[in-house]
Write a structure and sequence with these properties.
Immunoglobulin-like, alpha+beta, six-stranded antiparallel sheet
Length: 629
Amino acid sequence: MKNLTKCRLAFVVAAAMGIAGCGSDGKDGEDGAPGEPGPGPTPPVTEMSEVTHITMISHAIEEGQIRYEFEVTNEEDELVEGLVKAEAKFAEKTERGVVLNRDGAIGGYTDTTKEGTVLTGLGEGRYELVAAMPAVTAASEGIVWLRVGGDDSTQIARSQPLVVDKPEMIHTTTSETCNSCHVDYGDSSLKHPSYAAINTDGEADLVAGCMVCHNNVSRAEEEGGYATNTLQKIGHINHQKFEKDFTPTNCYTCHAEPVINTSIAGNGCSDCHSSDSAVAAIVQASSEFDAREFHVKSSLIGIDERQTIRAEHSTTLSAIYQNAAGDYCTDLSLYKGEEMLNIEALYADGTLSYASTYIHGYHNESIVGRESRSYSEIYNADGSKTMCHATLDLQTAQIMASSRLTFKGGNWIDDDSKYGVSFTSYSPVTELADLSQETEYDRRHAVTTDSCTTCHNNETNYHKNGSYVEGGLDCVACHNNGQDRSAKNSAPGFGPMVHSMHWGIGNELSGAKTDEDGNNVPNSADSLNADNCVSCHAEGISLAEIPNQYMLSKAYNGGVSGVMTSPVTANCYACHDSASALSHMEQNGGELNVPAGDDWYTHGTAESCATCHDTGKSFGIDKFHNFER
C-alpha cells in the first residue's frame, strides 16, 4: 500500500470537496512587514492531451533497472492523469561506443507491456516508472531515454522522445550542425522524424536521440547494437553526394567537437576506408589524433589551403575616375593582411588565374546592367592593377564597378576551375555627371553570411566566379536585376535563381544528377523542406522592404530578351509556378515577362503582395514558411 504524505492526503480530501488542497495563505511577516505569498492555486488536472510534455524530477540507474520520476502536462500546461504507457531505452557506454543490444546483453529497452516494468501514478500528474533492464548495473552509464503516452485506451498523445541523461563527449556532432541543413528534423519528411528527441531543457538533442537506436556498433556485429546502420555510417555515407561544391571530408561541417579515434580500423573510419589496404594506409599520429584536421589538411582535398587563402587575403576596388584620355578607370588592389601584394608578379608565377573588373549601371540600390565589359589594363608600381573602359553602353545616371580576383590553389584544374578561391569587391557609387560625387555601394541582401557555406563547404567558387561566402554576395555582380541571364532558364536575378535552383524548376536543370536513361533528376536540396526559409533567411523577410523595381527576366520565357518581371512575383514564381499561383499574383499587380523599355529600371511596379503577405499580416509569409529554428 502506498503511503500518503499529509500534504497529499489533504489534496485528496480537498479535491473530493471541490476545493484546492495543500495550499497556504502565506507566511505571516513581522509586524509592519508584508507576508510571503502562498504557492497559488493547484494547476487543473485532465486526462487528455494533444501534445504531451514530460518534466523530469529524478532518475536513477540501479541494478537491473532504471527508475524515473516525472510529471506529465499537456499543451495547455494542465497536469495529465491516467497515463498507462511509457517506453524506456538505455544505450550503454562501452569500449566500442554506445550499444543497445536487442538480445538484452548490453543496455536495455522496455515498455509498460513488458514483465517487470511498472508505471505508478503518484497523483498531481506525477508518475514513477521502474524500467526493467537486466543487463544494467548501478555502475552503468550511457544515454537514458524516455517516452510516454500514445496508448489507444487513453486520449493522451505520444510524447516527443526525451534524452534524460548522457555522458560527456558521447558524440562529436551536434544537433545544431544537423539542423543547420535540416532546420528541424522532427518536422521533415525523412525517415522516422517522430524520433527526433529533446533534452530535459526542451532543446533539440537530435544526435543523442538517434544514437539510442543507431548505436556506434552495428546490429550485424557480434554483440552488436540495435540498428544495422550506425549513426556514423548514416552521417558518412548518406551525406556524400551533394551536387555542387560540397566535400564530405570537410569534417568540421558536422563535427563541432574534436573527433578522437581510438581505432583507425574501427567505427567511423571503416565506413569509408573499407578495404584492408585503405585502413593500412592510414597512420594514427597519437592518441590525440583529431580526424577533422587530418582530412582538411589532405593535399588531395586542399580545403585547408583554400581556407588559409581566404582568411589571409582581401581586395579593394577604387571609385571610378576618368584618366587623361577620358576613359573610365578603377584600381584593384590585393592585400595579405595589411600588406599590398603585387598582382602582376602573382600572375607571372601562376598564383593568380584572373583579375578583372566590370562597370555597372546602378539605380535604387540595384545593379541594373553592364555599362562596359572591355578594358585596357595597367600594372602599377605599388602592385595594384588599373583597368580603364573607353566607353559606357547604358549611360545610367549612377555607375559603379565590381572586380573578381581568383587564386588558383594547389589543386587547380584548368578545365574545371572550381578549385580556385575568388574575391569580389564593389566600388563606391559615383554620379556619371560628376564622378567626384561618391556614395557607398549598398544592396539589400536578406540572407545570412553562412547561408551558402553551411552546405557548399569546400571553400571553392561556383564556376570560378562568385564565392559562396557572405551569403553569395559575390554572385550579385553577375546575377542581379539588370544582368539578363538565363541561368539554365531557371529564374532571373539572384534571389529567384537561388529559390529555383534549390526548390523550383531549376532543381532538375543542373544535370548534376541523372537517372539511368540520362534524364535530369532533382538535386539533394529537394530532400529538405522547401518552406524552411530560415536556412538562409535567419533574420526573417520583409516584403515591404523589397525595392519596388523590376528585374529583367528572359530566364522565365526560354531566353527571349527585353522582358521584365516585378520583384516579389519573380521570387515567389520561382517555386510557386502553377497557373493558379501566377493568376493570383497577376490579380494583385504582379507582372511576368512584360516588355521592358530602355529606362525599365526607373519605373515602379503595381504589385501589392506585401499588403496581405508581409510578415505579421493575416496571410503573412511567415504563416506558411518557417523563419525560426
